[in-house]
Specification:
Blueprint lengths: L16 H7 L2 H4 L3 H17 L5 H19 L12 H13 L12 H37 L4 E6 L2 E7 H26 L1 E2 L15 H7 L4 E2 L3 H6 L2 H27 L7 E2 L18 H9 L1 H14 L14 H24 L1 E2 L1 H7 L7 H10 L4 H17 L9 H7 L4 H4 L2 H6 L9 H16 L3
Parallel strand pairs: 3-4
Antiparallel strand pairs: 1-2, 5-6
The protein binds arginine.
Length: 459
């Protein structure tokens, strides 16, 4: 190894190559360089305000920190094989530029408060990008739901014919889940906007630093309340992973619906070629690979949550190197969302829904069996009795190879429901469900208005 680690003062040996390979984090935490630069500049200003740096030195330090950041961004920075992590690499770069002045940078701070400051800044910026992608996806769902407000299709439970719904109703069901994700993300961000800088290694510092001023310089809502908590806490990372897991699960369920709707047995939807792939062997194929990957990649944030939870479980307070394992699950989960969200939005924006095929499938008479039972209830028949009656009728019809659709007006008179044929009419059945939250035109219209209000405050 060429350079010496930052902490080499009391050491007689350099780390063994195997120890270095195990402990280094530069290979993945280099993406925190922009945040490390901002946190370092804020710390320089804190040292200046504390009277530990004069204005000229503070300016020189800030310039050097920013220069190193720019070199890292443009891939021209010369990393040293001894660099343990992005924090030590940046400090080394500054010290090589400024000599003795560079050695003043780390006064009153530790990598323990620095790393978690960087990670909070990174997470908050990532959360904003994910929220923006989420808003884009919600706008696509809103538009497609509006278009499909009167498109009737079979609603299924257990994957089997249940009751009629509309495309607008179904797409809005996905939208409300995503809207909760957006709210969760916002609540998480408010809780995460706490600066740990100034907490030092565990017990702050004897130097007259002002963590509140540093917090506001970095755009955090406030500074830490307790320095030991500040360096030990990774709740914000677990919470982001939990929000990401739920969001990714929602995306996987949208993907599952689109896969099912576009398969040969349903043909309710046709995927755009730009969101499908072909087979290397079978020329006829249009496969939903992007959707399948959105579905499968939901495993990543969920397992990332479990992974970080295991790292943190039973870990005593104070910094431990174990905490270095917080970053990769977080990076991978955010990368996954940033790959999945635009793809599913694009897929939904371009998919062609086949209203005819959906409407035809919605003519299956069994979808209206509940409506028949409820029509009896409206006449005063107890529901259980109505359920038994309709069930018995269905059994008799089935034995005959017939369905409710084969009943004549005379048959319906016998059942005591002269309006029977109308009960089997898809449009009638949907508009009869005018109650709040349902599939009827006016119900979905209200749902769209709720979504529109939520989006209006976020644009
Ligand atoms: N690379 C470390 C991390 O990611 C930075 C903190 C190191 N602190 C220490 N005391 N070894 O957590």
């Amino acid at each position: 190894m060429s350079g010496k680690p930052l902490w080499s003062g009391r050491f007689s040996k350099e780390p063994d190559a195997s120890a270095h390979r195990l402990t280094e984090s530069l290979s993945f935490d280099v993406r925190l360089a922009p945040q490390d630069v901002e946190a370092s500049v804020a710390h320089v200003r804190a040292l200046e305000a504390a009277g530990l740096l004069d204005a000229a030195d503070a300016k020189a330090l800030e310039d050097a920190v920013r220069e190193v950041g720019e070199e890292i961004a443009s891939s021209s920075f010369a990393f040293d094989p001894s660099d343990e992590d992005v924090h030590s690499a940046i400090e080394r770069g500054v010290t090589e530029r400024l000599g003795g002045l560079g050695e003043r940078l780390h006064a009153g701070r530790s990598r323990n408060d620095l790393v978690v400051t960087d990670l909070r800044l990174w997470s908050l910026a990532a959360g904003e990008r994910v929220a923006a992608d989420l808003v884009d996806l919600l706008e696509v769902l809103r538009d497609r739901a509006r278009e499909g407000i009167d498109g009737i299709l079979p609603g299924t439970t257990h994957g089997r014919l249940a009751q009629p719904v509309t495309l607008g109703h179904h797409l809005m069901a996905h939208a409300f889940g995503l809207l909760r994700d957006l709210e969760r993300l916002e609540e998480w961000a408010a809780r995460t906007s706490v600066s740990p800088l100034g907490a030092g290694a565990i017990a702050t510092s004897t130097l007259p630093l002002d963590p509140e001023a540093t917090a506001s310089r970095l755009g955090f809502a406030k500074a830490f309340d307790n320095s030991m908590d500040a360096v030990s806490d990774r709740d914000f990372a677990m919470e982001l992973l939990s929000v990401a897991s739920i969001l990714a699960m929602h995306l996987s369920r949208i993907a599952a619906d689109l896969i099912r709707w576009s398969d040969e047995s349903m043909q309710f939807a046709r995927l755009d070629d730009a969101f499908a792939t072909g087979s290397s062997m079978m020329p006829q194929k249009q496969n939903p690979d992007p959707l399948e990957l959105v579905r499968a990649k939901a495993a990543r944030p969920a397992s990332a949550f479990a992974r970080l939870a295991q790292v943190l479980d039973g870990l005593p307070l104070g910094y431990h190197r174990d905490l270095q394992e917080d970053k990769e699950p977080l990076f991978d989960s955010v990368d996954t969302l940033e790959a999945s969200l635009p793809a599913i939005a694009g897929c939904l924006a371009t998919v062609t829904f086949d209203a005819e095929a959906m409407r035809t499938a919605a003519e299956a008479p069994e979808l209206y069996a509940t409506d028949v039972a409820e029509a009896l209830v409206a006449q005063g028949v107890p529901f259980r009795e109505a359920h038994r009656k309709v069930g018995g009728l269905l059994r008799l019809l089935e034995e005959d190879g017939r369905t409710l659709g084969d009943l004549t007006p005379e048959d319906w008179d016998v059942v005591g429901l002269p309006q029977g044929p109308q009960l089997l009419d898809p449009e009638h059945a949907v508009s009869a469900r005018g109650m709040h939250g349902g599939p009827s035109h006016q119900s979905v219209q209200l749902q769209l208005e709720t979504l529109e209000r939520a989006l209006a405050t976020r644009r």
